[in-house]
């Protein structure tokens, strides 16, 4: 789907009117309406509540319009129009008193469906919205398309979204923007990326692990790195998950999906940066050669890691990928990872836990997240908890136990980041457990648009 086809410039062409009202103004509005409209709203139980929609008769046969309840007609929220785009009949529409603004993205994503595996896909038609700010269409479409890419990749079953499929997606995106792709895979990882190799070696024959790198941009521009956790299925390894915990572990490559989508946004927007995207892709499986609790593995950086829990594998593959990214001396590095259940317990499914070693970067990123309605919540890199990662026989353990799990995971990864390199770690759920307008149950982009806004603010196109 071309999302920019769903929003078009308003040049006065015929369109069905949409009037937006707030519940507090409903009584005044309804009192001014003709009898036919009052009857129609009563029949549809419309009272101006946020999310309510009613179809109103026109003055001539065949004419009709729409009235919809929103929270604030003066400040359109991102998802204000998503339900309209999802439920109205096919056709062309225009807002009567306001312009869509940021809600263009919600209108576009109201059309999103994941139907790749349906034998009889549901055809819902296209609703086009006319707007008076055509200059904003391309930016909204870029956000919608990137969000849809994240959703599509996460929703795809693990059998069809293994490490090789992630590589194919990276090559597809790279080809579109003439980026360079480098892949280190299989046993070639053992000497250079031993932690990635250890996590993925149990699935070596069917789903060989790999480090996927994409490079793009002018070497004269500031170098940034985007890193994604690409565990394409997480059984938990020998510390196997229960069935309930394993059910949606196809989403454990959600960090990789975010990294790839963000890389495409950066390239599509022609940001003046030297981009280095890295995806550490592996399946955490079980076999006779799976890595074990108690094993000690020497990382790419040289730090030795005692495996306390094989289900704390994401931080391992990220450690080697972060080390590689740091070797090229980026001035900013961000990683996305579906890393800990502890972050979900603390913040729920909507709020990615955000960690950063630089206060100014964290503050600017939080401001960016508010600007684009893509919330983040900063969590502490609480240094005293580092002792939870102590090992008797290695430089560090990979798991800090049951307390402050998201914090100790971030502290583990911080061991591989120089203090003077600005770093952001997003522990994102990448999944929506229930459906909302424009946001169906399944894979979800959380934190993606916030980081992109931060990058466009920091590295503006001149």
UniProtKB/TrEMBL annotation:
<dbReference type="InterPro" id="IPR000819">
    <property type="entry name" value="Peptidase_M17_C"/>
</dbReference>
<dbReference type="Pfam" id="PF00883">
    <property type="entry name" value="Peptidase_M17"/>
</dbReference>
<keyword id="KW-0464">Manganese</keyword>
<dbReference type="InterPro" id="IPR048816">
    <property type="entry name" value="Peptidase_M17_N_1"/>
</dbReference>
<keyword id="KW-0645">Protease</keyword>
<dbReference type="InterPro" id="IPR011356">
    <property type="entry name" value="Leucine_aapep/pepB"/>
</dbReference>
<feature type="domain" description="Cytosol aminopeptidase">
    <location>
        <begin position="309"/>
        <end position="316"/>
    </location>
</feature>
<keyword id="KW-0378">Hydrolase</keyword>
<comment type="similarity">
    <text>Belongs to the peptidase M17 family.</text>
</comment>
<dbReference type="GO" id="GO:0006508">
    <property type="term" value="P:proteolysis"/>
</dbReference>
<keyword id="KW-0031">Aminopeptidase</keyword>
<dbReference type="GO" id="GO:0070006">
    <property type="term" value="F:metalloaminopeptidase activity"/>
</dbReference>
<dbReference type="GO" id="GO:0005737">
    <property type="term" value="C:cytoplasm"/>
</dbReference>
<dbReference type="GO" id="GO:0030145">
    <property type="term" value="F:manganese ion binding"/>
</dbReference>
<dbReference type="Pfam" id="PF21337">
    <property type="entry name" value="Peptidase_M17_N_1"/>
</dbReference>
<dbReference type="InterPro" id="IPR043472">
    <property type="entry name" value="Macro_dom-like"/>
</dbReference>
<protein>
    <submittedName>
        <fullName>Leucyl aminopeptidase family protein</fullName>
    </submittedName>
</protein>
């Amino acid at each position: 789907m071309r999302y920019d086809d769903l929003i078009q410039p308003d040049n006065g062409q015929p369109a069905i009117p949409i009037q937006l009202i707030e519940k507090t103004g409903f009584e005044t509005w309804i009192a001014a309406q003709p009898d036919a409209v009052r009857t129609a709203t009563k029949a549809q139980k419309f009272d101006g509540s946020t999310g309510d929609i009613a179809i109103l008769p026109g003055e001539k046969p065949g004419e009709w319009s729409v009235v919809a309840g929103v929270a604030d007609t003066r400040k359109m929220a991102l998802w204000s129009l998503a339900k309209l785009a999802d439920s109205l009949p096919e056709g062309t529409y225009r807002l009567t008193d306001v312009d869509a603004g940021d809600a263009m993205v919600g209108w576009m994503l109201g059309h999103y469906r994941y139907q790749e595996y349906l034998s009889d896909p549901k055809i819902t038609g296209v609703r086009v919205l006319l707007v008076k700010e055509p200059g904003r269409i391309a930016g909204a479409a870029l956000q919608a398309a990137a969000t849809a890419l994240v959703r599509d990749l996460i929703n795809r079953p693990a059998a069809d979204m293994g490490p090789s499929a992630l590589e194919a997606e990276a090559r597809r995106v790279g080809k579109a923007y003439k980026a360079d792709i480098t892949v280190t895979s299989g046993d070639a990882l053992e000497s250079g990326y031993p932690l990635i190799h250890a996590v993925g070696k149990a699935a070596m024959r069917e789903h060989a692990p790999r480090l996927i790198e994409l490079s793009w941009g002018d070497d004269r521009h500031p170098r940034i790195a985007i890193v994604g956790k690409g565990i394409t299925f997480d059984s938990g390894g020998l510390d196997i998950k229960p069935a309930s915990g394993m059910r949606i572990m196809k989403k454990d490559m959600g960090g990789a999906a975010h990294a790839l989508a963000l890389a495409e946004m950066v390239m599509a927007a022609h940001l003046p940066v030297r981009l280095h995207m890295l995806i550490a892709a592996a399946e955490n499986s079980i076999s006779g050669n799976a890595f074990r609790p108690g094993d000690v593995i020497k990382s790419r950086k040289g730090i030795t890691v005692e495996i306390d829990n094989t289900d704390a594998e994401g931080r391992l593959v990220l450690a080697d990928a972060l080390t590689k990214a740091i070797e090229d001396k980026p001035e900013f590095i961000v990683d996305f990872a579906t890393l800990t259940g502890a972050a979900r317990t603390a913040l729920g499914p909507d709020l990615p836990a955000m960690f950063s070693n630089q206060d100014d970067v964290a503050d600017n990123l939080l401001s960016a997240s508010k600007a684009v309605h893509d919330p983040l919540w900063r969590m502490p890199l609480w240094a005293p908890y580092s002792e939870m990662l102590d090992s008797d026989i290695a430089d560090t353990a990979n798991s800090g136990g049951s307390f402050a799990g998201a914090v100790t995971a971030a502290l583990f990864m911080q061991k591989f980041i120089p203090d003077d390199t600005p770093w952001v770690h997003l522990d994102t759920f990448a999944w929506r457990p229930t459906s909302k307008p424009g946001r169906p149950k399944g894979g979800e982009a959380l934190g993606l648009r916030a980081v992109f806004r931060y990058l466009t603010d920091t590295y503006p196109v001149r």
